[in-house]
Amino acid sequence: MGASKLQALWNHPAGPKTIHFWAPTFKWGLSIANVADFSKPPETLSYPLQTVVACSGLIWSRYGMVITPRNWNLFSVNLAMAGTGLYQLSRKIQHDYHSKTEAEITNE
User: Fold this and answer.
1) Which 3 state secondary structure label does DSSP give 3?
2) Disulfide bond: present as a keyword of the record (predicted)?
């Protein structure tokens, strides 16, 4: 039973014998790097970079579902990219918003 499933994965059109498997697999490095940046102070985050990460993740996760055959590896890595990018953007926006209110309070 296990050998047949392994054989099916190996021979799948988006399996390990194709670039359609390896490109998303290595793209996980971007999501992992963004998760590692969760510990960075929010003022060091970049709006353009995190916007691109989030939008790219959303666009390519949709693409992973409309192509034939469906590429679940592509879908999942880009969903993770979108999630980490949106989380980083929310951290940056929250930091910038609270920094302005604290500065206004200090000036009063």
Assistant:
1) helix
2) no
For the purposes of burial, counting CB atoms within 10 Å of the CB of 108, is it exposed (0-12), middle (13-18) or buried (19 or more)?
Answer: exposed
Torsion from C-alpha of 66, 5, 7, 81, nearest 10 degrees: 40
Residue 27 near residue 80, CB atoms below 8 Å: no
- Per the listing, tokens 């930091």 go with 95
Is the preceding peptide bond at 24 cis, omega within 30 degrees of 0?
no
d(CA 49, CA 61): 18
pTM to 2 decimals?
Answer: 0.80
In whole angstroms, give the CA distance from residue 88 to residue 8.
38
